[in-house]
Amino acid sequence: MLESSSPAGPSPTPMFRQYHALKRDHPGAILLFRMGDFYEMFFEDAQEASRLLDLTLTARGKGTDNVAPMCGFPHHQLDAYTAKLVTRGRRVAVCEQTEDPRKAKGLVRREVVRIVTPGTVLDPGQLDPKDNAWIAGVAVAGGVLGAAFLDASTGDFLAWQAPQDMDGWEALCDRLAAFAPREIVFPEGFPWSEDFRAARAGEALLTECEPFGFTPASAGERLGRQFGVLSLDGFGLRERPAAVAAAGGLLGYAQDTQRSALQHVEQVVTHEPSRALLLDPATRRNLEIERSLRHGGVEGSLFAAMDETVTAPGGRLLRRWLLAPLTEPADIAARHDAVEELLAGERVRPAMREALRAVHDVERLSARAVAGTAHPRDLAALRASLRALPDLAASLGACRGALLRETVAGLDPLEDLAAVLERGLADDPPAGAREGGVIRDGFHEELDQLRVLRGDGRATIAGIEGRERADTGIASLKVRYNKVFGYYIEVSKPNLHLVPDRFRRKQTIAGGERYVTDELQDYQDKVLHAQERIEALEYELFQTLRGEVAARAARVKRTARAIAQLDVLASYAETAARHGYRRPRVDGGTALRLRGARHPVVERTLPARAFVPNDTALDAQGKAIAILTGPNMGGKSTYLRQVALLTLLAQAGSFVPAEEAVVGVADRIFCRVGASDSLAEGQSTFMVEMTETANILHHATARSLVLLDEIGRGTSTFDGLSIAWAVVEHLHGRPGGAPRTLFATHYHELTELAVQLQGVANCRMAVRERGDQVVFLHRVEDGAADRSYGIHVARLAGVPAAVVARAGEILLNLERDEFGGDGLPRRARKRGQAQKGQYALFPAEAQDADAAEVLAELRAADPARLTPLEALTLLDAWRRRLRGDA
Predict the structure, then answer these.
(1) CA dihedral of 112, 118, 119, 121, whole degrees rounded to 10
(2) Which residue, of 18, 242, 467, 756, has the greatest Cβ tally within 10 A?
């Protein structure tokens, strides 16, 4: 590490002493040191920043004993370069000159005005407008884990404590995965394991803090001051010391980094995941709610398919609603009522959405005002948004739905703030607060007078020039200006004998002389003073306007909430209108019935009407588990996700892509689809599969919806089949009833479960064969499949013809029982003969799908209700099916 001077070397300059003092106060941050029009970095910060920002590394003090590596950039590029450093996981301390260099006596005073970290970014260029930017705080108190989540750009603030009846680390990991914070702050000595810490470090910046702020007493005191209360009971934090510790510690960190009281953080909400439909990390990933599994982007996700919002707050709220659907039928019905009314209002919805389009991100604009980083154009955007609020409220004036009326009532028009911004802010202000032209004429009397003085310059100069020509008799006399000499009088050589004594010579030029007079000097002093005063006064007035916004940040935030809710409800209605969605019926029952249902994402990628709708009928009180068999590429995974997504949408308050939908409220959705590994945690594909399966088996209830795809395929056939069979039996035999379950598999032996277990049924993806061609119909029908058509799929995938042909031969040999290393016929092994100490798991009747179906029908048949002819007809049909007749 390089230093400006060693203890034995020369003393550093006053400027470097100032720099080192600030650097010692912020040892973990890159210090951006303001010097005139540039931000400079020195020593190790310069070396690191030059590499990260691709800046030229130079040095200060060359030729002396105090050589300091340095690099820098112009002040107007602060946001861009800060963004680059923060996205690379660095903390940045912004040091400004806090006094006018022209008035400073000696060294200019400098202070760190804010610290920018990945979790405290407020710059719009660094934020996704339709996603929250969470920073998390974690703490432990009384042996219980707590966490808090803050979006400093919006003021959203939540506190959570691990439930006493479950593993705290598992619950904490789930909450951190759900919020995906950019940064996690924690007290020194926080007791997490190295494995857990390493896993989190790969996803977020970990910041260790002084522990005192994370004690329940200190944290509770800070929260009480922030919200102006004596007790936190009103926020639901009674007897939640770990939640209080995490929230107070996190708030303190955010205030310290922002150098702000964060007035827009007006409340902390107790986060209760159990009040919403729960989605574990694997399910969120497998259902592609926020991100596509293929490329990791938003495109191709459920959020992208459903997002018709026109405001940034609306987009963020839509994402939260999709990730935390409701579980109370009355609350769900209130959203459905609002969507139904907006869908029917052919004139209301367009007017409403047109007004919403004029609304900017008022939530984040007010947060920037609170932090003191809002620019003039930010205030102009806020003003334009406030102008749109009366039209928005008027468009919904005739609405009758309770939720719409309640939301419109919370739409504060902020007329006082709108009036201040209208009077004070110029129509088209510049980007910078010190560029001039920010304040409207007529807002401030002194500013208006100074502008008149500056603006009347031409007339004043013309008057001086005319009088001097008349007084001196020099017709060619001119009054001019340049940046070096200011204002001067220019006289040509032939007229020099006419120059009066009151003219003071300023400069000799080739064609004559330049002079100055007392009158001209006085005018110049006034003009220069006026310009300086204009710049200073405009900035002061702009700061006053920004303060007016900051003082009303809480009201702006409440209005932003109303705007967001109206936007999401209108987005739901717009999606329903464009794509033919219908209102679902959501109740407290256990049935899940979908008729003519479509996948909300996949259907958008296909030509019109190309998607094949399907039905679903599950009921925890009846057919709770469906074993889904069928070929690869038949659409099993799409069908499973489709059922899950329609349930999720219905409970999130949206209409759904189906002709009819009845949804008994689910408490959790579990989706185990596809194969993935976790190399960072040393887990194989099969280990990940079993871990996710274990989570489902431990937590699924009779009110859950479980989607399982190809359980057991990651290991040997017998092992996998045994695990899959046992998983279905476990779900079926759960105390309180089996969860509604779709179990997709290629293990056709599992179809026997429909015979053995009441409440288990078979269904399959329909296929039609035409010669050696196979047509996938993508339609779900009752019954079991007996083939997977894997070799056909291999041919479609481009596997070499020779390989496909050989695979067909091997399959034929296996089916004819002519292939086996132990010499035993395959059919003999199926029928339960022991092989190498392994016993048969299933009776012989389970090995043939047709036989299984015949047995199921035989057990269900009632001979007492059949006529002799009907009995003979059934018997003949069964005989033909068992013989394999067409």
Answers:
(1) 60
(2) 242
